[in-house]
Structures are given as C-alpha cells and as structure tokens.
Amino acid sequence: MNQPEIYQAGLREVEFGARVKIVEPCNLYGCKIGDDCFVGPFTEIQKDVRIGARTRVQSHAFICELSTIGDDCFVGHGVMFINDTFSTGGPARGRKELWRETVIGNRVSIGSNATIMPVNIVDDVVIGAGSVVTKDITTPGTYAGNPARRLLARG
Amino acid sequence: MNQPEIYQAGLREVEFGARVKIVEPCNLYGCKIGDDCFVGPFTEIQKDVRIGARTRVQSHAFICELSTIGDDCFVGHGVMFINDTFSTGGPARGRKELWRETVIGNRVSIGSNATIMPVNIVDDVVIGAGSVVTKDITTPGTYAGNPARRLLARG
Amino acid sequence: MNQPEIYQAGLREVEFGARVKIVEPCNLYGCKIGDDCFVGPFTEIQKDVRIGARTRVQSHAFICELSTIGDDCFVGHGVMFINDTFSTGGPARGRKELWRETVIGNRVSIGSNATIMPVNIVDDVVIGAGSVVTKDITTPGTYAGNPARRLLARG
Questions:
Q1: Residue of B nearest to A77 (CA)
Q2: Quick check: is C5 in a domain?
Q3: What is the predicted pLDDT for the residue at A94?
Q4: Parts of chain C with a pLDDT under 70
Q5: Contact by Cβ (8 Å): C143, A93
Q6: What is the CATH number of the domain that holds B120?
Q7: How many CB atoms lie within 10 A of CB A97?
C-alpha cells in the first residue's frame, strides 16, 4: 500500500509588515505581506508574491507566484490568480519560463469569485464579482463580465 | 521581525438547531443554523446569518453578514455571497451602512461556483452553476449566466 | 442547547498510487489517486472518484462522486465538478439515480474557477479559466466562456 507524502498548509518564510491579521488555516509561503493587511481563512499565497499595505485578501482566495498587488486593494472571496496560460496547449509543468506575471496597482478592488489571468491592472479599478479578467486594464474604472469589459457610467 | 496576529477558524457563538452536521475545518461565527442542516468543509458563515431548516451549505461556500437563507435550500460548492457592492468605487472598509442585505426564500437551489450579489430571491428558484446573480429574482424558475437571466422552458 | 455532529476533513480509505503528494487540510475519501499525482490544500475528492497518473488537483478544487479523470490532467484552483443537475427543479437529496457522471480524458487542462457540469470530455482539451462547461466536448481544442464554446484558432 502506497503512502502519500503529506505536507501541511501553514505560514512559512513569510515577511509580515506591522499589524497583519491572519485567519488559519491558510497556506502562505515565501511571500511578503504589507502593513495592516488582513488575510482570511482557506487562502493560499505563493512564493515571491508581494502585497502592499492595507490590502485585504478575503477567504478562499488564491494568489499565485509572479503576482504583485499594491496598497489598499481588496481581493474578494474565492478570487483566483493565474500565471500559467496553458500557452502550449497544457500546463507548463515546471517550465516557469512559460509563466507570466500579474501586476495589480493601488486601490484595486476585485469582486468575489473573479478570475485574474496574468495581466497588468492600473490603479483605481473595480472588478465585478464573478468576472474573468483576460486582458490588461490600463484605464481606471469598473470592469465586469466573462471576459471582463469596461462598464460605462450611466448618465 | 513582525509577527502577525493569528486567529483560528472554528465554531464560535453559533446557535445550532437539532441534528446539524458540520465538517471541519470551517469558520462559523455568530450565526444561526436551522434543524437538520449540513455544512461542508472549507466554508465560512458570518455573523448574524440565519439559515433555515434542512438547508445544505456545501464545501467552499462563503455566506456573508446580512444574509438570510430559508428552509430546504441548497448552497452549492464554492458559492459566494456578497454584501459590499463597492458602491463608492471600492470596499466599504467597515462602513457597514454601505452594505446591503440578501434574502433567499425557501427551496432555492444555488449551483456551484455561483456568485450572489445582495439581492432578494423568492421561493422555488434554481440558480445555475457558475452564474452571477446581480438583480432581485421575483418569479420562481431557473436562472443562469453572467449576469443571470431566466431560462425559458423549452416546449 | 443543541450540539452539532462534527466531522473532520482528512484522508479516509483513499487508494494512493506511488509518489503522490498531498497538502492538508483536504478532504479525500473512498477515491483512487494515480501515481505521481499532486493534490493541493482545501480540496475535496469524494467517494469512488478515480484519478489517473500525473494529474494535478490544485488548491480549492472540488471533485464529486461519479467523476473519472484521466492521466496527465490539470484541475485548476477552485474548479468545481457537479453530479446533480437539479433535474427535478432542486437537489436530488440522496436519490443518487438522478445524479449523472463526468468522464474526463487524458491531457485535459481545466483552468481555475471553471465549473464542470456532468459531461464527457475527450483527450487533449483545454478549458479556459472561469468557464462553465455544460455540454459534452467531443473534439480536442480550447473551450472557454459561460457556457463554454470552442475557441477557433486565429490565423
């Protein structure tokens, strides 16, 4: 009978700013979390992720390697970041040169259950809940849908 | 080196009905769970949520403050409720007067990975998996899509 | 004051292949996991699920009873499988004869936050992140959207 190798989620080699609050169980490793951040339960934040000050990472969120998030952001419940676009027709399986990075500016609020492909998002953006962001967002505003498109202000 | 404040998910100040079954780890606090409910693992149910009898809350679901759910409902895996609509262009950050409530009737079945904005949903509604519900649902029936729309019966 | 019955997520009656890696907490029971698989944290894999060799099940994924997954697949973060289509207007509630099965071929890569209704998917398929797969996929290729449709190659 085979026995699996079992690892335990936890906090490993995380550089915490001041006054960070964490709810376990969560799986944070090799990342940097800014001052006054909150990280909810059932979250994973991977290696080399950097998160700015006062950003909230809500329960069930997953933030992958190669992601950078600014100050005063909100990562909603169940938001999933992605670094592997299956560009060769399937997962990169360790060929990290195929991964792409995500850079999120300041004051970006990402609604619950949204999915974030590897993109750049400028400051002052709202992403609607359940959206799938597939392209860079270069203009502040509100974006929603699958794929996410800009919502025009109603007059 | 800063140390975060670490909290542990668990069951705190929950008013349970009779014969409730719970799978841990989950994070339930200050809420009321009716008779014969089931709550799966990796769930969070927040303060002041009230859930009726015989309702099932499946794994990975998140039910936020200001949500009320009726009897005989089904909250699918990964369903996320929302109370903050970013109405000011970002999260309310503690200004709870900006939050809005969700009221779900009886016999409402919400498919997995659906996202529920703050809405009212009448009795006898089915929400398709992966849907994003953005408006009140006032007529029984089946709704799906992003945003969710009523599916007409096929003749 | 009522006390709930509390169960704990864990590994119960799982048949593991060789060199499987698991990150706890996760909830795996009565299933079969092939050689060299990886299963991330905050996952649930239910009874009678069979998963082939070298398949990765990423964090927050949920794989329900009546699902079979081939070799060299990738089940992204937050992917939810479904066996109950609410065909009678609500959940089957134990009438398992109403559940339907899902069969996933080999080299199928499912993007994060995708939702998989009970379907058959052939070998060599990519499902975009955030997609909702509602119908069988019988031709290799890339599919995305809600509902998922085939993406045609751009010339």
A1: B80
A2: no
A3: 82
A4: 153-155
A5: no
A6: 2.160.10.10
A7: 5
